[in-house]
Amino acid sequence: MADDETTDTAAEDAALDAALAAEHAAVWGYGVVGAALPPGERAAAAAAEDDHRAVRDQLVLLLGERGAEPAMPEAGYALPFPVLSPVDAAALAVVLEEGVAAAWVRVLDRAAERPARALAMEVLGATEVRAVGWRGAAGQPTVTSAFPGLPER
User: Residue ranges of the chain with pLDDT lower than 70?
Assistant: First the structure.
């Protein structure tokens, strides 16, 4: 893909906006994760929430600089399953990280400019590192994905 000023970035902006929506959901979801964990185990959830907030804020600025209207957070999000225990909380964290990874893979697919690709790769790596830890806490295999965000075959 070209990295010049004539490149149409509309598809990239749309993908970045979808990634922003995923980051909003992750920030909200980590509130649920943290609430279901014992007080002594909440640090990882708080750190993950902070990481997603930082990426969210970076995306809001980036999209604003491009003249795009950034996605707003929803008032609430439907949970994929009840979160009634620390194991459920860890499983939800896995779902959150995998959802964010899928959104960032779409950014890579649509990226017209090098900074968007670099940001996507950075975020994808971070989501997979967090997901591996949460998979272990949820009793899932902790095998890392060679291609985070892509569907398993």
Answer: 1-8, 152-153
**For residue 30, what are the contacts with CB-CB under 8 A and spacing of at least 6?**
45, 46, 48, 49, 52, 93, 96
Q: What is the DSSP letter of 84?
A: -
- Give pLDDT, residue 6: 39
- The C-alpha atoms of residue 145 and residue 132 are separated, in whole angstroms, by 9
Contact call for residues 34 and 45 (beta carbons, < 8 A)? yes
CA 104, chain centre distance (Å): 7
Pick among 1.20.1260.10, 2.60.40.150, 3.30.70.1350, 1.10.150.120: CATH of 10-137? 1.20.1260.10
pLDDT attached to residue 8: 66
Looking at residue 4, its pLDDT comes to 45
C-alpha closest to that of 90 among 43, 150, 31, 133: 133
The pTM of this model reads 0.90
For residues 136, 132, 147 and 14, what is the CA-based torsion angle, rounded to 10 degrees? 120
